[in-house]
Amino acid sequence: MSDYSLSTVRHSAAHIMAAAVQGLYPDAKFDIGPATEDGFYYDFDMEHRLTPEDLKTIEKAMKKLMGRKLPFEKTELTRTDAEKILSDRGQTYKLIRLGEIPEGETISFYTCADFVDLCRGPHVEHTGQVGAVKLMSIAGSYFHGKEGNPMLQRIYGTAFPSKEELDAHLLQLEEAKKRDHRKLGVELDLFSMSDSVGPGLVLWHPKGAFIRHTFESYWKDEHYKNGYELMYSPHVGRSVLWQTSGHLDFYNENMYAPMEIDNNEYYVKPMNCPFHIEIYKSRLRSYRELPCRWAELGTVYRYEPSGVLHGLLRARGFTQDDAHIICTPEQVEDEIAEVLRFSLNIWKTFGFTEIKPYLATKPDKSVGDPQRWQTAIHALENAVKKAGLECEVDEGGGAFYGPKIDLKIKDAIGREWQTTTIQFDFNLPERFNMTYVGEDGQRHQPFMIHRALFGSIERFFGVLVEHFAGAFPVWLAPVQAKILPISEKQLDYALKVGEEMRQAGLRVEVDERPAKIGAKIKDARHERIQYILVAGDSEMENGTCSVRSRREDQLGELKVSDIIAKIVDEVAKKI
Fold first, then answer.
1. For 6-177, which CATH superfamily applies?
2. Is 273 designated active site?
3. Domain covering 481-572 assigned CATH 3.40.50.800 in the classification
4. What is the pLDDT of residue 2?
5. Between vectors from CA 406 to CA 313 and to CA 256, what angle results, nearest 5°?
6. What is the pTM of this model?
7. Is 411 in the active site?
8. Which CATH class is domain 186-233+273-468?
9. Sheet hosting strand 264-268, strand order edge to edge
10. What is the SS3 assignment for 279?
11. Which percentage of the chain shows pLDDT scores above 70?
12. pLDDT tens across 415-455, in order?
């Protein structure tokens, strides 16, 4: 077991991979090889076009280097000497990277076997301390990530301090493939995307739309119960709105080109915040009206490069479950604590119990009164303490306009997902000159808190699909029960049972196909139906169905009224 951090182990593995590639393909030119959240990669430029079979050869060469326990040796050089080494080796990409290192910063190289790399480090002491590696895939990558630059070959891999940890990770990846929301979305007829519509734009099919409707209805009901007011805003706004908000200066590359209407430029919205501010400013507000807790399921559009689009998890059009809380400084701590309590309650309803907060504090470059920053950070810290959670602090990781809490949840197979964000904002209230009349009769600037609970409806739906592997709990399932008559003889009875269940508010289908019962059961299980009701002669005679529950297995022959009562109870309890 290595005493080094996982990122250090993985960065060292990237260097070992580069050393192996150099030994196999001496003409290779190298760019960068960082550790990532799931492993590492390295970018290469060479004549040989890599194949999956090559990965086995490279991995074998890596293991030989690891077995030799070769040291990672650090050398610090002058810029002139560094340029000479890279020039002599023909490493043009590294020369460009060298030129990007600021004057006065230490220039260091690391040597592993015959491979010499411009690198800040750190690394493990020797190659034998990288316990276990696996090369995963090959992809193309533009140098510096910019189209028009040379296309490099990227090898992705992963590394762990022990083989046991690597095997557990690979097993998780296999399970993740089975749960991939893009695959299950097609299999279960939930959603699709079309080239004719455009990449990153989601088409919701009836079953997926019903699940969305169900959890959006729950979302709305809970917001009303917890003191929020819901609102709607337009999909477009004039350029002056986005100029005031700062989006045209700081976010323009993620916004779609403007359209001209009545000689004015309009943009489709990348965010909902400015519209909510305009509602606030529609009249003068008193301190007695605060806090304003306003929420919207607002669809936004952002340009994402095609290379980063990933089904529902990274789209170009998506609906944010936005909320903005506008309050006085005295109210801020209680409001944050309430937002956190509310968010945790919602996540637990959906079956997520492992939730961890991350607190991002003031960066070097920021706006707003330092005292306000301290008040905001203190409020976030206290809210986490009140919730009884352990918080990881990201020093300086906040946005320039305020600190934030990010909640990360773990799914059924142990993957962590970034979800809820609770973000302070000192920037927009100032830009839009937001005020309220205080108890002293004077105008004051309010605090503004952004809160996205799910992040976006699309991303949340993708996470749900993968968490439940498509087998949604009965309250969310688009089809809660499926009735399977054994033969045509029981079809009328099955239809009668289905109608009785629908009248009780349940979502039911009857399999009317003239197929064998075994095939019907197999198909219903493949569709992840929670309750499969089989109707034969005995059941028809007794007013019952033989029930199979996905959660509880065989339940035997039950009266239809008892089946209805059981499912209705589970729906009410959000099981």
1. Threonyl-trna Synthetase; Chain A, domain 2 (3.30.980.10)
2. yes
3. yes
4. 56
5. 45
6. 0.87
7. no
8. alpha beta
9. 236-238, 264-268, 259-261
10. helix
11. 100
12. 999 999 999 999 999 999 999 999 999 999 999 999 999 99
